[in-house]
Write a structure and sequence with these properties.
Elements (H helix, E strand, L loop, with lengths): L1 E5 L4 H5 L4 E3 L3 E5 L4 E5 L5 E7 L5 E7 L7 H14 L7 E6 L8 E6 L2 E6 L2 H5 L1 H9 L5 E6 L12 E7 L5 E5 L2 E5 L14 H8 L7 E5 L5 H7 L4 E6 L2 H13 L5 E4 L2 H7 L4 E6 L8 H21 E12 L5 H14 L4 E7 L17 E8 L2
Parallel strand pairs: 1-4, 9-10, 14-15, 14-17, 15-16, 17-18
Antiparallel strand pairs: 1-3, 2-6, 4-5, 5-6, 7-8, 8-9, 10-11, 12-13, 18-20, 19-20
Bound molecules: S-adenosyl-L-homocysteine.
The site of S-adenosyl-L-homocysteine (SAH) has 19 residues, from helix 6, strand 15 and helix 8.
């Protein structure tokens, strides 16, 4: 077993529940393996967790108790995580959200009878067998892995995706509230579905009374579109990804609804449409690792808001999202405010929505609060 001793003073953030130790915060280490105990420079036990030999994030907390990280540990974590998710109106939800569930490096999404997992750290890859045994308690029909993202190289891991257990019939049918969705677990974005927008889909649908014109930009497989169509709105969904649009069309049909889907660049569509709308939803992809990427996400928010405010009717709504922790709700509000004054339309922000209960965030770990959505209403 490995023992890691922190530099003096570095124990403070761990005591405040920040779950990562960076390599340059380590004073000394001894022993081998991927499971490690963390101590302060005074020799006080701080946490049990994993050690990554290659990554900048050297240690990740899995427990604040001195306990073995065995199959039983993962069983306990999954049952705690499940208890925290009681009452979710769907058979698809995030069962384990990495650091938020004290399972740093692991994501487990449930899709109906199966699981899709994502392994985000080298030690979690080594511990995968224990994870799979613990998950097999749920008797899943399948366990599929979607670890095909670039960030894995920092951990010294290759991208991987494939079936780990059972049988998978892809796409998978899930039930969210009264709706059905087909989820492409093998080839879809993230692990297949935007589980984190579940409550925002219901929120947005709740704004509609029937007959409104709705534009769902970056619609992916039609999550928001289905909800809005069910309220009697005339919905147009826009995305650049043809296979996502095909699934969106299927999802609308599956719920006996109708909506139109257009393959286009959302920015161009918004500029060229002659239509005005009651509701525009804009849920763009957001990668903001570097300063430059952050600038471009901020610019995209401004641009989307700017163009939307020109196309919204009086009392029309813009529901705009950002899904990167590097951009705060305050920064989004600023971009939307600038856009509104640029086009001289007065807006009010009615709501700021964050992540749903299966994506809880650790208040002392800002990296875990990534999703922010604003509901802006155009007053004049
Ligand atoms: N709102 C969706 C998730 C959006 S994911 C839901 O709740 O399910 C972001 C989507 O934006 C992806 O489907 C991607 O194909 C699409 N996309 C990326 N760049 C785009 C662009 N410039 N114009 C239109 N769609 C784009």
């Amino acid at each position: 077993m490995k023992r890691i001793i922190l530099k003096p003073g570095k124990e403070k953030k761990i005591k405040h529940f920040y779950p990562w130790v960076f390599r340059d915060e380590i004073l000394s280490q001894e022993g081998e393996g991927v499971i490690a105990s963390l101590y302060s420079s005074d020799g006080e036990f701080l946490a049990k967790g994993t050690y990554s030999p290659h990554s900048r994030i050297a240690f990740r907390v899995l427990s604040y108790e001195d306990e073995p990280i065995d199959e039983g540990f993962f069983r306990k974590r999954f049952s705690q995580a499940l208890a925290l998710r009681e009452g979710i109106p769907s058979d698809a939800y995030r069962l384990a959200f990495s650091e938020s569930d004290l399972l740093s490096g692991l994501i487990v999404d449930r899709y109906a009878e199966g699981f899709v997992i994502q392994v985000r750290s080298y030690p979690m890859e080594v511990l995968k067998e224990r994870v799979l045994s613990a998950l097999s308690d749920f008797s899943p029909r399948f366990i599929y892995e979607r670890s095909d993202f670039k960030g894995r190289s920092e951990e010294g891991l290759e991208p991987f995706s494939g079936l780990l257990m059972g049988e998978l019939e892809n796409p998978v049918l899930i039930h969210e509230r009264e709706f059905k969705f087909l989820v492409d677990v093998k080839g879809g974005l993230k692990t297949g579905f935007y589980l984190d927008q579940r409550d925002n889909r219901a929120y947005v649908a709740g704004l509609l009374r029937g007959g409104e014109r709705v534009l769902d930009l970056f619609c992916y497989t039609g999550g928001f579109s289905v909800y809005c169509a069910s309220r009697g709105a005339r919905v147009v969904g826009v995305d650049v990804n043809e296979s996502a649009l095909e699934l969106a069309r299927q999802n609308v049909r599956l719920n006996n609804l109708s909506a139109e889907f257009v393959r286009a660049n959302a920015f161009d569509f918004l500029e060229s449409t002659n239509e005005t709308y009651d509701l525009i939803i804009a849920d763009p992809p957001a990668i903001a690792k570097t300063k430059r990427e952050k600038e471009s996400v901020l610019w995209a928010i401004w641009k989307l808001a700017h163009r939307s405010f020109l196309k919204l009717k009086r009392f029309g709504r813009l529901f705009i999202c950002s899904c990167t922790y590097q951009i705060s709700a305050q920064e989004m509000i600023r971009q939307v405010r600038l856009a509104s004054t640029d086009v001289r339309r007065r807006i009010l922000i009615k709501e700021v929505n964050l992540q749903p209960q299966d994506h809880p965030f650790v208040p002392t770990f800002p990296e875990s609060l990534y999703l922010k959505c604003l509901d802006a209403v155009v007053i004049d």
